[in-house]
Specification:
heterodimer; A: 152 residues; mainly alpha; 0% strand; elongated; B: 179 residues; alpha/beta; two-stranded antiparallel sheet; 6 helices
Chain lengths: 152, 179
């Protein structure tokens, strides 16, 4: 009796496993396709001007797309796929640069510039008005003469 | 303070001007190939003559892998005699392989009939797999592989006699003397 029960459980589990495998397969391939789409949008088409592999109809873009799909189907990670192409084309093949400096530096430059401007404006506002230089004896004499000439 | 303010203008403008001036003169495709110093990709492809040629057949000799196309005019036309004379003058010590980039056998045969066939083999790369393996961005592009199978240099754009002699020195130091 026990043996029959064990066999029944095993049979049910086997059926569940087969059904699950069949049901999950399209989901997995859809997932792979979505990953391939995302990676194709990240990679530069090598023989176009400023287009991604996803947006380009060239043969080179088609071959890269085929290689992305083959690599993903073979179990490669997204980073593994990126590494496959950067090993051939260099980082040039990635449309978005990987170095964080590229993203940080422009904001840092703007921030430093804005800070400099604020310091300069505040400095001007609080600075005492420049004192006039004392008149020389010659200037004093000339003013005196011209004032007298006006009065005359 | 006033001197500093006047200095600030050239300090900002000169590097920016230099960057723009030099940047516009550069070919954005001409980035250093990560393959340099690495083993050349392995391949086995059909030749225009219907035979099969592989990278293993070339082992032990320096070779050039020249990506070209019959539609690549005038660059590939200009470069064609340079490769032909290198093939003739190196007396079999240097191997040259033409790889058709996004081009078929018919176009290639017409090109060779018109501009001369030096006799080195040309292989077909119908899906462009080898072009992707070498990281090619467009024809003509030539890779210089030494006798140990290591990529030593790359030429983006057409080769001239002078450029070829210069780049060949990386894979066969005696080549410069023989030319």
């Amino acid at each position: 009796m026990n043996r029959v029960a064990v066999l029944a459980v095993v049979a049910v589990l086997a059926v569940v496993a087969v059904v699950a495998a069949v049901a999950l397969r399209p989901a997995q391939s859809a997932n792979l396709e979505a990953r391939a789409d995302a990676l194709a949008a990240e990679l530069r088409c090598p023989d176009c001007e400023g287009l991604s592999v996803a947006d380009s109809p060239t043969a080179a873009a088609a071959e890269i797309r085929r290689q992305i799909e083959a690599l993903l189907a073979a179990g490669a990670t997204d980073d593994g796929v990126r590494a496959h192409f950067t090993a051939r084309y260099g980082e040039w093949i990635l449309l978005a640069p990987t170095s964080p400096l590229v993203w940080i530096v422009p904001f840092a430059v703007v921030a430093v510039g804005a800070a400099g401007l604020v310091v300069w404006v505040l400095g001007r506002r609080h600075a005492p008005a420049p004192e006039a230089a004392p008149l020389s004896e010659a200037e004093r004499r000339r003013i005196h003469e011209e004032a007298e000439a006006l009065d005359a | 303070m006033r001197t500093l303010r006047w200095l600030a203008i050239p300090i900002l403008v000169v590097p920016l001007g230099w960057l723009l001036f030099t940047g516009f003169g550069r070919d954005p495709r001409e980035v250093a190939s990560p393959l340099i110093g690495q083993p050349a990709p392995a391949w086995e492809l059909a030749t225009l003559d219907g035979d099969t040629l592989s990278s293993e057949d070339l082992a032990g000799r320096p070779y050039l892998v020249n990506f070209w196309a019959s539609w690549c005019i005038p660059s590939c036309v200009d470069e064609h005699p340079v490769l032909g004379s290198a093939w003739a003058s190196q007396e079999g010590e240097l191997m040259i392989v033409g790889v058709l980039y996004q081009d078929g056998a018919d176009g290639a045969r017409d090109f060779l009939a018109r501009y001369g066939d030096a006799g080195y083999p040309h292989v077909l790369d119908p899906n462009g797999t080898l072009a992707v393996d070498f990281g090619v961005t467009g024809p003509p592009e030539t890779f210089f592989v030494d006798a140990d199978g290591i990529v030593r240099d790359r030429q983006v754009g057409p080769l001239t006699d002078a450029l070829l002699a210069q780049r060949l020195a990386a894979v066969m130091p005696a080549a410069g003397l023989r030319r």
